[in-house]
Amino acid sequence: MNLRINTKLEIPADEIHWRFSRSSGAGGQNINKTDSRAEIVFNVSESKTLTPYQKHKISFQDEVKLINGSICIAVQDKRTQYQNRQLALSRLASTLRELLKPPPKKRRETIPTRASQKKRVESKKRRGEIKRNRQSKIDY
């Protein structure tokens, strides 16, 4: 089953590798028998679907920690392997979506208008007047 990241990018199932192990935490007697922890490994550097620009963009971001050029996500939140697999796939998709998101537009600096400067000074004067009126004017 291919993993759809967005409308333009879909990762084939053969580029995604799985590892399963026993999960820690609650589970009763069944925990000693089932491998419910799912770990998904996606090798970014050897991917054929990602462009060189996308690979570069992913590898130079601090949000995700690449281990040998791979994104590793381990999930053991649910009690069944199937649920953990689905959760791992959705986490990988959201991680890649965030990493490949275009950068936000740069803010163009502008100078404040004369009216906004005047409004700011007037509000400061009003606030100062309120504080001045609160003070007691007792002359000793």
Protein described:
The chain is an alpha+beta fold and 140 residues long. It has a domain at 3-99: Double Stranded RNA Binding Domain (2-Layer Sandwich). It has three helices and five strands, in the order E-E-E-E-H-E-H-H. A three-stranded antiparallel sheet has the order 3-4-5, covered by helices on one side. Strands 1-2 form a two-stranded antiparallel sheet. Strand 1 (3-4) and strand 2 (10-11) form a beta hairpin. The radius of gyration is 28 Å and the shape is elongated.
List the helices and strands and how they pair.
Blueprint (H helix, E strand, L loop, with lengths): L2 E2 L5 E2 L4 E6 L15 E7 L8 H8 L10 E6 L5 H19 L14 H21 L6
Antiparallel strand pairs: 1-2, 3-4, 4-5
Sum up the structure in keywords.
alpha+beta, two-stranded antiparallel ribbon, 34% helix
Question: What would the average pLDDT be, to the nearest integer?
Answer: 86
Low-confidence stretches: none
Q: Tell me the helix content.
A: 25-40%
Order of helices and strands: EEEEHEHH
- For the record, what CATH class of the domain at 3-99 applies? Alpha Beta
| Biggest sheet details | 3 strands, antiparallel
CATH topology of the domain at 3-99, what is it called? Answer: Double Stranded RNA Binding Domain
3D shape:
elongated
Compute the separation of the termini in Å.
86 Å
Structural class, judged by helices and strands? alpha+beta
Number of beta-strand segments: 5
Strand order of the largest sheet: 3-4-5
> Which strand-content bin applies to the residues?
15-25%
Q: What's the helix count?
A: 3
- CATH architectural grouping of the domain at 3-99: 2-Layer Sandwich
User: Over the alpha carbons, how many angstroms does the gyration radius reach?
Assistant: 28 Å
